[in-house]
C-alpha cells in the first residue's frame, strides 16, 4: 500500500466477489470476509473513504440443484443462506459492505452488457437454438492475462453444453432456459428466456457501482481462473479499464484438503463459534498472511484462542490499573510499516505481542503514562484488525443484561469473600472447593496482588475434531 494510487484521490473502491448462497458458510468462506474487512479498516486508518461492493450470487446452477433436492423454491433457498451469510460475517465482526447487490436485481444491466459484446463481435448467440450466449475467447487476444495462461493451454470451460460453442474454452454469458429448471429462474431476452452466467453478474455489478475503472478487485484464489479472468475479459471488451489491482486470498484447508470436503459440518461457522468465541476465531484467521494457506484444525484454533485470552487479560488488568484509556489513533511505526507491506498481519501481530509484553512489565509498577500509552497502542492495533475487545461489536456481546451482570457480580463476589476468609484461616480445602465449584460453572478465578478477579471462561469444547 506504500505506492498505492487510487483512481479517485482520497477514495478507494473495492469489489469482492460475494458468495453463491447455496449453503451455510464455513470457515473457508468467511476467511475472505475477514481479509477484506481488515483491508477496509486499514485503508480507513490511512484516511481513505472506502466503498466496498460485495455481491450476492443468488441465481446459479448449484442453487437450482440444491433447492430442487430440498423441494423448496430456489429463491427461498438462496435467501435462507444469504441470511446465514449475513449472520456469519456479523458474528465475526465484519462490517457489512457499503452496498451488497444481488445478481437477480441486475438482469437489465447484464443484458445491456451482452448486447454490447455481441455488437462488438466478442460474443455470439449459440446457433443450436439453446438460447445460450457465449463469450468468444479467440476474439479477445488478451484473454488469459490475469492467470498468465495462453488460450491454447487452457482447459475447456465446463459451464455449459459445448455443442453450441465455437471454441470449447468459450464461456457462457447467458444460459438458455431448460425444461428441468423452474421457469421463475429465467428472464426474457432477445435471444430467448434464460438466466445469467456467473461471471457476467460481477462485471455488470462492479461497473454499475464502482464505475468503469476502480481500485481493487478481490476474492479467494480459486476465483482467479476462470471467474476473474472471465470478468476481466468481459469488462475490458466493452471498453472498461476495470480493476487496477487484483487481490486474492489463499484458501483455508483442513488436513491438506479443501475445507468443505474434509471437515464437512465441523467447519461451518455456526458450529465453530460454539467451540471458541467469535472474536477468537477472527483472531485466529487474522494471524495468517492473506496469501498463505490457512491449515485449519481445532487444536490450532484453540491454541490461538488461549493466546488471545492472554492479550485480553492484559487489557483487563491495564484498564483496571489505569482506569481505562481510548485506543490510539496513531499506531506504532513498526506496526504501520508491516500493515503497509501488503497487509502483513503476522509481522504486525508480532509488534502487538511485543507491546503487550512490555505492558505486562509496566503494569507491575501500577499506573503510569507509559502504561497508558502502551494500553492505548495495544487497543489501537487490535481495533484496526477488528479485534479490540473493549470496542463494538464485542463489548456489547457479554450475553447478559446489565441487571443480570450486577447480580452475578454480587454473587461471585460473595463467594470470593468466603474463599478469602477460608484462606485467612488456612482452610485451603474449603477455599479450593469454592474455586472448583465456580470453575465447574465456567467462572475462572485468578489471584492477583490486587485481590481475586474472575472471568467467565469461553465455552469449552466437549468433543474432538
Ligand atoms: Zn465475481
Automatic annotation (TrEMBL):
Catalysis performed (reactions): tRNA(Cys) + L-cysteine + ATP = L-cysteinyl-tRNA(Cys) + AMP + diphosphate
InterPro entries: Cys-tRNA-ligase, Cys-tRNA-synt_Ia_DALR, Cys-tRNA/MSH_ligase, CysS_C, Rossmann-like_a/b/a_fold, tRNA-synt_1_cat_dom, tRNAsynth_Ia_anticodon-bd
The UniProt record lists the keyword Ion transport: no
Cofactor binding: number and manner: Binds 1 zinc ion per subunit.
One BP annotation, GO: cysteinyl-tRNA aminoacylation
Subcellular location: Cytoplasm
Binding site residues for Zn(2+): 17, 202, 227, 231
Domain of life of the native organism: Bacteria
Quaternary context: Monomer.
Family, as annotated: Belongs to the class-I aminoacyl-tRNA synthetase family.
Full protein name: Cysteine--tRNA ligase
Source organism phylogeny: Bacteria, Bacillati, Actinomycetota, Actinomycetes, Propionibacteriales
Amino acid at each position: 500500500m506504500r505506492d498505492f494510487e487510487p483512481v479517485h484521490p482520497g477514495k478507494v473502491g473495492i469489489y469482492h466477489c460475494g458468495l453463491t448462497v447455496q449453503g451455510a458458510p464455513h470457515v473457508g468462506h468467511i476467511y475472505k470476509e475477514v481479509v477484506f474487512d481488515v483491508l477496509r479498516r486499514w485503508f480507513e486508518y490511512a484516511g481513505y473513504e472506502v466503498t466496498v461492493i460485495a455481491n450476492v450470487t443468488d441465481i446459479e446452477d448449484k442453487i437450482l440443484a440444491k433447492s430442487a433436492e430440498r423441494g423448496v423454491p430456489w429463491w427461498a433457498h438462496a435467501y435462507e443462506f444469504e441470511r446465514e451469510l449475513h449472520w456469519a460475517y456479523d458474528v465475526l465482526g465484519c462490517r457489512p459492505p457499503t452496498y451488497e447487490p444481488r445478481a437477480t436485481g441486475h438482469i437489465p444491466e447484464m443484458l445491456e452488457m451482452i448486447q454490447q459484446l455481441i455488437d462488438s463481435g466478442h460474443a455470439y448467440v449459440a446457433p443450436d437454438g439453446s438460447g445460450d450466449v457465449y463469450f468468444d475467447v479467440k476474439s479477445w487476444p488478451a484473454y488469459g492475462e490475469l492467470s498468465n495462461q495462453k488460450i491454447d493451454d487452457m482447459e475447456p470451460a465446463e459451464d455449459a453444453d459445448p455443442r453450441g460453442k465455437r471454441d470449447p474454452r468459450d464461456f457462457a454469458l447467458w444460459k438458455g432456459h431448460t425444461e428441468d429448471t423452474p421457469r421463475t429462474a429465467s428472464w426474457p431476452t432477445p435471444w430467448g428466456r434464460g438466466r445469467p452466467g456467473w461471471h457476467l453478474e460481477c462485471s455488470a455489478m462492479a461497473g454499475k457501482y464502482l464505475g468503469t475503472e476502480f481500485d481493487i478487485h478481490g476474492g479467494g484464489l480459486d476465483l482467479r481462473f476462470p471467474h476473474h479472468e472471465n470478468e476481466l475479459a468481459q469488462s475490458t471488451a466493452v471498453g472498461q479499464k476495470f480493476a487496477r489491482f487484483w487481490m486474492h486470498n489463499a484458501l483455508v484447508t483442513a488436513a491438506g484438503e479443501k475445507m468443505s470436503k474434509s471437515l464437512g459440518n465441523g467447519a461451518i461457522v455456526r458450529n465453530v463459534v460454539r467451540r471458541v468465541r467469535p472474536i477468537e476465531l477472527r483472531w485466529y484467521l487474522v494471524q495468517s498472511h492473506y496469501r498463505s494457506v490457512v491449515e485449519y484444525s481445532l487444536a490450532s484454533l484453540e491454541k490461538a484462542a488461549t493466546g488471545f485470552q492472554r492479550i485480553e487479560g492484559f487489557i483487563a488488568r491495564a484498564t483496571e490499573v489505569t482506569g481505562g484509556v481510548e485506543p490510539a489513533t496513531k499506531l506504532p511505526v513498526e506496526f504501520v510499516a508491516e500493515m503497509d507491506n501488503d497487509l502483513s498481519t503476522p509481522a504486525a501481530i508480532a509488534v502487538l505481542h511485543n507491546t503487550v509484553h512490555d505492558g505486562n512489565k509496566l503494569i507491575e509498577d501500577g499506573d503510569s503514562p507509559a502504561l497508558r500509552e502502551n494500553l492505548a497502542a495495544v487497543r489501537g492495533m487490535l481495533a484496526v484488525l477488528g479485534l479490540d475487545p473493549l470496542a463494538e461489536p464485542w463489548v456489547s456481546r457479554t450475553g447478559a443484561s446489565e441487571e443480570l451482570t450486577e447480580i452475578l457480580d454480587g454473587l461471585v463476589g460473595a463467594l470470593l469473600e468466603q474463599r478469602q476468609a477460608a484462606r485467612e484461616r488456612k482452610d485451603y480445602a474449603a477455599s479450593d472447593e469454592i474455586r472448583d465449584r465456580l470453575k465447574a460453572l465456567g467462572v475462572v478465578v485468578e489471584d492477583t496482588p490486587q485481590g481475586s478477579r474472575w472471568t467467565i471462561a469461553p465455552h469449552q469444547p466437549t468433543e474432538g475434531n
